[in-house]
Prior knowledge:
By secondary structure, the chain is of the alpha/beta class. The protein is 46% helix and 12% strand. Helix 3 runs parallel beside helix 4, helix 3 (74-86) runs parallel beside helix 7 and helix 5 (166-179) packs across helix 6. The chain starts with a helix and ends with a helix.
Amino acid sequence: MSSVFAKKKLFFLQFHFARFFVFLTERASFFIMIAKKRKGTDMDEQFLRSAMLFGEEGIARLQAAHVALFGIGGVGGACAEALVRAGIGTLTVVDADTVAMSNLNRQTVALHSTVGQPKTQAAAKRLLDINPALHLIQKPIFFAQESCEAFDFSAYDFCVDAIDSVKSKLLLAQCCKQAHTPLVCCLGTGNKTDPSRLRITDLYQTSMCPLARVMRYECRKRGIEHLPVVFSDEAPLTPRTLEAPQNGKRTVPGSTSFVPPAAGMLLASYVVRRLLGLC
């Protein structure tokens, strides 16, 4: 009798243990599924607000795009951040400069902790923290005739000129024209204090900007008939001389924390809207 009871008890225990094991397995699978779903949602959520405007197809198009940004200063740094936050999948950043104390008033890459670092390196750390999935290509070189062979302009879906050298700006415009690569250029933001005067137009529709005058003349000579630019029609102020000019410059322009970054945002908006066929 006791033997039969013992067998029944063993069967009862085995049956309920099996049921409990199945329950635990199902719950574990459920929690793993939820964890995976949440992980995927976090990545999707990063571009959720943009997808509300551009759609999933638009975000996919931006993630497949390769943009080359020349210059990561007050204008270029803000532009880079806006492009990455918008969802650009591959970004090449070009700048030979290092972060200086005088950059702290306007440049997103400039922090006390990054002073002395190459700007491409400082930008990379910040941009990859915004989007770890970003494919970032650093080129810590000065864009000039001697270095332009390091660039395959046909590989870029768009180029952005945030350089402060006229020779480099003209060279970039020529390279993009030859490669049939879209380009948007930023003109002067130094000695300006009103960001509301910034706008996007064609180079030959600009006024009040000393750099624009030089660019119009030189681009005409080079057969560049159209060039979208960000410029300000605000009359520039005359800055006080508080810093000695370097790198062959005659003067050092004054700057603010709000005009160069605003120009960078306009550049980024133009690139994104062009890539999406919105302008």
